[in-house]
């Protein structure tokens, strides 16, 4: 999770440790490989070092909670844009207690206006993995984890930006198939679900985006775009693992 300054001017990153129960108890898609815990820990450490050592950002790492096997995925319990933070109600009930630690951490920042989804609409559900902020507008996936009520709360929480609903079929989240690759650039998969998402974005948005299509599996589009002292920076999957994407 990125705590933003001016749109993409990242100052602080919130991470959380990996629960020992991740491999056995975390929510998984049916078609994914089993979790290699050793590899997951190594990747998590690499991710931390990129933010802390290479990018010299303030990194807050929350303790893992083995009773919450998905707790490492801090993107889902909150959406932070500028000085506004929306603590969500994740779509799966087993993930909702993850919000407690995230809320407590966000409350330590003096200048953030915190909004809590369940207080605005108890029927609303939203995973942060469905929210793609482009700098111009907010795309949000209408998915298995995010409902119409959740999208309406997002509109209330971030009134300065247009919120555009994108129907998601065949994938867990919107950002399972596309992420921001730069200002007005979207990295996107090449499968049927990705193509449908691209068509919806082009149809519904008044902004013209450049789509950078990845040729490996859709998750190879999973990247993080940020700006450090005005310098565009993209954290992306290994091009060794995904050579077609690297091209």
- What proportion strand? 25-35%
Average pLDDT confidence is 91
By DSSP (H or I, 4+ residues per run), the number of helices equals 7
Shape annotation: globular
What does this protein structure show overall?
- With 247 residues, the protein is α/β, with parallel strands linked by helices.
- The chain has helices at residues 22-25, 37-54, 98-106, 117-120, 148-157, 192-204, 243-246; strands at residues 2-4, 10-16, 58-62, 78-81, 84-87, 113-116, 131-133, 137-142, 162-167, 178-182, 185-188, 210-213, 224-228, 231-235.
- A three-stranded mixed β-sheet has the order 1-2-3, with helices on one face.
- It is globular.
- The chain starts with a strand and ends with a helix.
- The model has no long low-confidence stretch (mean pLDDT 91).
Show the helix and strand layout.
Elements: E1 2-4, E2 10-16, H1 22-25, H2 37-54, E3 58-62, E4 78-81, E5 84-87, H3 98-106, E6 113-116, H4 117-120, E7 131-133, E8 137-142, H5 148-157, E9 162-167, E10 178-182, E11 185-188, H6 192-204, E12 210-213, E13 224-228, E14 231-235, H7 243-246
Parallel strand pairs: 2-3, 5-6, 8-9, 11-12
Antiparallel strand pairs: 1-2, 4-5, 7-8, 10-11, 13-14
């Amino acid at each position: 999770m990125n705590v933003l300054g001016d749109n993409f001017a990242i100052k602080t990153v919130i991470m959380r440790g990996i629960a020992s129960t991740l491999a056995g108890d975390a929510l998984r898609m049916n078609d994914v490989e089993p979790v290699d815990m050793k590899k997951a820990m190594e990747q998590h450490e690499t991710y931390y070092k990129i933010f802390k050592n290479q990018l010299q950002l303030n990194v807050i790492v929350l303790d893992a909670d083995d009773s919450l096997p998905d707790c490492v995925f801090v993107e889902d319990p909150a959406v932070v844009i500028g000085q506004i933070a929306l603590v969500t109600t994740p779509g799966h009930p087993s993930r909702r207690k993850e919000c407690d630690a995230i809320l407590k951490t966000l409350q330590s920042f003096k200048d953030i206006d915190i909004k809590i989804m369940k207080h605005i609409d108890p029927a609303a559900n939203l995973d942060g993995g469905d929210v793609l902020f482009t700098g111009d507008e907010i795309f949000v996936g209408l998915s298995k984890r995010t409902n119409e009520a959740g999208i309406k709360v997002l509109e209330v929480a971030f009134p300065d930006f247009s919120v555009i609903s994108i129907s998601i079929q065949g994938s867990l989240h919107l950002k399972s198939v596309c992420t921001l690759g730069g200002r007005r650039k979207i990295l996107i998969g090449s499968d049927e679900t990705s193509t449908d998402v691209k068509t919806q974005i082009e149809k519904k948005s008044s902004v013209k985006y450049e789509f950078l299509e990845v040729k490996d599996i859709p998750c190879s589009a999973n990247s993080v775009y940020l700006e450090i002292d005005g310098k565009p920076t993209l954290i992306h999957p290994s091009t060794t693992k995904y050579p077609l994407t690297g091209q």
